Amino acid sequence: MITDRIAKVALFCLIATLIGGLFGCEQLFNIFIDGDMSGPSPDPVVVVKEREIVHVGLVLPLTGSAAGPYGLSMERGYLLARDDINSLIYSGARINFITIDDMSTAEGQVDAFNRLVEMGVPAIVGIGISTNAIQSLPIAQENQVVALSSLTSASGLTSIGDYIFRTALATDVQNPRGVQVTHAALGYEKVAMIYDDADVWSTSSHEELDKALDGLDVEKLTTQTFQTGDTDFTEQLNAIIASNPEALFISGLSAEMVGVMIQGRELGLPPSVPYIVPELGAYDVESAGGAAEGTITFTTWISTSDAPLNQMFVENYRTAYGIEPDAWAAQSHAALYILYAAISKAQYDAGIEAPSPVLSTSAQDIRDTLATVENLDTVLGKFSFDANGDAVYDPIVLVVRDGSFEMFGDADMP
Fold first, then answer.
1. Residue 176 host element (H or E)
2. Which domain holds residue 277?
3. How far apart are CA 81 and CA 150, in angstroms?
4. In angstroms, rounded to a whole number, what is the distance separating the alpha carbons of residues 128 and 67?
5. Residue 227 belongs to a domain with what CATH number?
6. 125 in any annotated domain
7. Same domain, 238 and 226
């Protein structure tokens, strides 16, 4: 199909952008695709020569509590990107994943990192749940292996070292912006807060919300806590309802977050008091059912985004899996493309002439190249890393309407 050809050229140009203009898009088209684009024709022939296999560690929560809301979606995003790269793009390498299930535990993630370091992989991707990552990421740093997470967003994680990167937005970027947008629209003056004080991300999210609300002189009527694994939030929610807030901020992982949302409405917190929940996912919305209606979230991606390559990603994801992608899939898809682009650029920086099947796959070269990523077109929009390895792009604010996400805006004002 002609659209397939255009999509392939777009993907090639993505890599060319980071490589720094060594090839133009037209040159890439001539190198990779045999044939012209005039009139109907069979699928283009993609020239795929013998390539070096680059082994990349993929550490995901494929079982356990984090699998449904996070890990399985992340895996789909990575596999789709890998298959696209391996079948459509030629830059000297094929990606092979060494996949390890961390079982949603810190112990499982630490074990996975140790095993992959012993195998000599130059990079590890995936890496879910900040509470677990805070124990595993130092292993990558100590052994100078690139760790590129597509989920963890607790503030300060990348300060562990210069081999640590992520495509998720940190809480100190995402939450202040979300508070600013929602406060301007809703004008709330008195709010309640509840968070998981046993979870690293939840605590970080709460702290950033707390600081942002302080900056706007919003009164916090009550702050309640729970811990990972709790299922009954009656006492905390009764205290919140009694305080009569204008909004309720919730910071927690999926199971507990959904439990708070459902029980809050059941106990009588009216729908006129909106839930404001950073990093609410599609899985959470489905799990919460009607309790999710009207919930506002601070996140990174929506399927209707006009970011370059996004609609191609959405269409390919639907075709491959028969379901809609979510932000965790998009962040993971972007992560592998960014890593692959860095591997490709490291090839040229090492002075290896393309299209050689030999390229630089040293962790040091990949790390150095990742650190230079700036304004790269991805499904998340224009993407850069800051000096700490944190993602830089535009956060967005969404609201749940009829079980789906929509952009939050003027229509959502009282």
1. helix 171-186
2. 172-299
3. 13
4. 10
5. 3.40.50.2300
6. yes
7. yes
The arithmetic mean of pLDDT across residues 84-112, rounded, is 88
60 by DSSP, 3-state: which? strand
Say whether the peptide bond before residue 122 is cis (omega within 30 degrees of 0).
no
Query: Which among 318, 305, 261 has a CA at the least distance from the CA of 284?
Result: 261
Predicted pLDDT of residue 31: 30
37 pLDDT band, cuts 50/70/90, is very low
Residue 26 has pLDDT above 90, yes or no: no
SS (H, E, C) 356-408: CCCCCCCHHHHHHHHCCCCCEEECCEEEEECCCCCEECCCEEEEEECCEEEEC
Residues 293, 205: Cα–Cα separation, whole Å: 22
**Which of 22-31, 112-121, 151-160, 373-382 has the weakest average pLDDT?**
22-31
Distance from C-alpha of 353 to C-alpha of 360, rounded to nearest angstrom: 11
pLDDT at 87: 84
pLDDT at 385: 98
Domain co-membership, 142 together with 12: yes
- 349 torsion bin: left (phi>0), alpha (psi -120 to 50), beta (else): alpha
